[in-house]
Design a protein that fits this description.
Number of domains of chain B: 1
Number of helices of chain B: 21
Order of helices and strands of chain B: HHHHHHHHHEEHHHHHHHHHHHH
Number of strands of chain A: 0
Radius of gyration of chain B: 23 Å
Strand content of chain B: under 5%
Distance between the termini of chain B: 61 Å
Shape of chain A: elongated
CATH class of chain B: Mainly Alpha
CATH topology of chain B: Amino acid/polyamine transporter I
Largest sheet of chain A: none
Helix content of chain A: over 70%
Number of strands of chain B: 2
Largest interface: A-B, 20 and 27 residues
Helix content of chain B: over 70%
Order of helices and strands of chain A: HHH
Distance between the termini of chain A: 72 Å
Oligomer: heterodimer
Structural class of chain A: mainly alpha
Chain lengths: 100, 558
């Protein structure tokens, strides 16, 4: 008997939890969906600037932090192609650094 | 007549519109296809193109289109009596707005989610596209100027709302930080935000901040207008997550709470309609109902602004094409409900006819102030909330909406200036700060140029705003009509509203031309002529597009 009641409460708690997570999902969608695009674009702009800093030395722009950014280059290699395309360069701008 | 009866009649008609007419339009005219691959799926990128749950999308669509305009317009238009305003809102929502909004989504979804502006260029022609840009710019200009005047008027009349309105901005800023820096859960933050907002509304009446009638030779009203534009300029330059995103969210929650409170109070109190059904005794100088009613109430009956939202963001997130009916048509119904609430507040929320007539002393008077006072009367008597608190609640609702529209409008206007800088190769104009200053400057010119140095005459341009808004709607309907004709489907369901809108808009512009000339207001006379020229160009575009289509049709049959 007491076991049944216990199970009933468990089930109810489970239902409430499911309902709450559903509510959280809806609230988050409502909050973020209108501005998803604007925020992603702002973030991409920042990332593009960062790319420019990391690859600046290769393009002849002196960068005092070149020693450190060199280490980052392999990590950012995946994004390189999209980046130079976005910057309006059909091909890789670097002679010794072909990507497409 | 009982307000509940009016309410039920209005809601029943809109429900019938949604369940019967929109079903017919969606299935027989637009032929929405559940298997059509929408742009949200075709170009899914997680940024702009994201398939979104239709309830979420409806919430977003509805809160972006519902602003202060469906409150201000009907609250001004009840000067002709409540029946004309009621009929136009209900019939307009069912036969005009719903068809227009869902049609704009459909047209955009079928064309790679392009905006109405781009579609006008593709479907109708290059010339139409240029007219479209000019009309959009005029709409934004007027909406910013008018809303600044409306909020300034509210701040002067309801000093108890000053602290909550500006406090709400602070709440939004804090919420934005809580979400992005502290990563707090959203339901928690929502509760905190709503509680903080309503606490501010609660304490508002005990800390009224009254702007003096004159400060250093400038009227208090003018100071508010300047402050508002200062705020809007800064807000439109900030990153969106700092202020705009949390504030829109809080506003959305507030919209639903406000609507529920107002509708609930009407149901509990059951006030009777105090204003006359048809007002034979209109104040001197009130223009004739026909055609002015149809431009005074734009949002709430049909609004071109919705087409921009429908084709700008909504169409990129539509999960299934059939959702266009729910999101577009039901979004219009939501706005119709807001307009209906505004009509009821501004006509039933008074103790006697004399009180009502004291509010509507001239055309353009009353308006949002009548909505706040009438609504506060109903909430006070229906729910027992103190009248000052109820008035603060409604003022905050109206002011926050108008403020949201202002900074969004200013941001869009800035984009237009930047685009012009791009087209004409003016580097200085492309800078955000400069473009924003230009946008603010043009709006201020209109707000103060329209009437008097105190900026109080700004509401004169309200009907002019309505005409430009209707022109925008006309252009969208033209795009949808042309698409329908090319597909060989019936065109009357969009062409009839289009023709009606154009006739009413041009008639209203001609009447206003006369009024401005008689008043010697040459600034507005000039503006009226600009809008009139645009209206005539739109009408000519319609005729030439339809003619071209008639010639195309036989060619296809051969």
């Amino acid at each position: 008997m007491s076991d049944d009641r216990h199970e009933g409460r468990e089930a109810r708690l489970e239902r409430i939890r499911a309902w709450l997570s559903q509510a959280r999902f809806f609230a988050e969608e409502v909050y973020s969906s209108p501005y998803r695009g604007a925020i992603a674009r702002a973030r991409r702009d920042e990332d593009d600037l960062f790319m420019l800093l990391v690859f600046s030395e290769m393009m002849g722009v002196p960068n005092p932090a070149a020693y450190y950014t060199l280490e980052l280059q392999p990590l950012l290699l995946e994004r390189f192609h999209d980046w130079h395309r976005r910057m309006g360069m059909e091909r890789s701008p670097l002679d010794h650094f072909k990507c497409c | 007549m009982s307000a509940i009866l009016v309410l039920v009649l209005g809601l029943a008609a809109m429900a019938a519109g949604y369940f019967l007419y929109s079903k017919f339009i969606a299935e027989k005219i637009y032929r929405l296809d559940p298997d059509f691959k929408t742009p949200a799926h075709e170009f899914e990128d997680g940024v702009d193109f994201v398939p979104t749950n239709r309830y979420v999308l409806w919430g977003h669509h509805f809160t972006s289109v519902a602003g202060a305009a469906p409150i201000v317009g009907p609250a001004i238009a009840v000067i002709w009596g409540w029946v004309p305003a009621f009929l136009w809102v209900v019939l307009g929502t069912v036969f005009f707005a719903g068809v227009h909004d869902s049609g704009a989504i459909w047209a955009s979804v079928r064309n790679k989610a392009k905006s109405v502006g781009a579609l006008t260029g593709d479907v109708v022609g290059k010339r139409a596209r240029s007219i479209f840009m000019i009309v959009i710019f005029l709409v934004l200009l007027m909406v910013n100027a008018v809303f600044a005047v409306v909020i300034a008027g509210l701040m002067m009349n309801f000093s108890s709302a000053v602290v909550p309105v500006w406090g709400a901005i602070l709440v939004a800023l804090v919420i934005g930080q809580m979400i992005y820096r502290r990563k707090m859960s959203l339901p928690m933050v929502s509760i905190v935000g709503v509680v903080a907002l309503y606490a501010l509304i609660g304490i508002g009446p005990s800390v009224p901040l009254q702007m003096p009638a004159e400060v250093a030779g400038v009227s208090g009203n003018a100071i508010w207008i300047l402050l508002l534009f200062g705020y809007a300029a800064i807000a439109s330059l900030l990153p969106v997550w700092v202020l705009l995103q949390p504030r829109d969210y809080i506003n959305g929650l507030q919209l639903f709470v406000g609507l529920i409170v107002l509708y609930g109070a009407i149901l509990l109190l059951n006030p009777s309609m105090i204003a006359p059904a048809f007002n034979d005794n209109v104040p001197a100088g009130t223009p004739s109902l026909l055609p002015l009613l149809f431009v005074t109430i734009a949002c709430g009956a049909i609004s071109g602004f919705h087409g921009l939202v429908s084709s700008g963001t909504t169409s990129k997130q539509l999960n299934k094409e059939t959702d266009a009916r729910f999101v577009g048509y039901f979004g219009a119904v939501g706005e119709g409900m807001l307009a209906l609430a505004a009509i009821l507040a501004a006509t039933a929320g008074f103790a006697s006819l004399a009180d009502w007539e004291a509010m509507y002393t001239a055309f353009g008077q009353g308006g949002v102030n009548a909505f706040v006072e009438g609504g506060a009367f109903i909430i006070h008597n229906g729910l027992g909330l103190p009248e000052a608190t109820a008035a603060t609640l409604l003022t905050v609702m109206a002011a926050l909406f108008a403020g949201t529209t202002m900074d969004t409008g200013l941001r869009l206007q800035r984009y237009i200036f930047q685009e012009w800088g791009e087209i004409y190769n003016q580097q200085w104009m492309k800078k955000p700060a400069v473009a924003t200053l230009l946008a603010v400057g043009s709006c201020l010119l209109l707000a103060f140029g329209a009437g008097g140095a105190d900026g109080s005459g700004g509401l004169i341009i309200w009907p002019l705003f309505g005409t430009t808004n209707q022109l925008l709607a006309g252009l969208t309907l033209l795009v949808v009509t042309v698409m329908l004709v090319r597909l060989g489907r019936p065109m009357w369901y969009t062409l009839a509203p289009l023709a009606f809108l154009l006739v009413m808009t041009i008639a209203a512009l001609l009447i206003q031309l006369r009024t401005f000339f008689d008043q010697g207001n040459y600034f507005l006379l000039g503006l009226d002529i600009v809008v009139l020229v645009a209206a005539i160009l739109v009408a000519l575009e319609c005729v030439s597009a339809l003619k071209r289509l008639r010639n195309e049709a036989p060619a296809k049959q051969e």
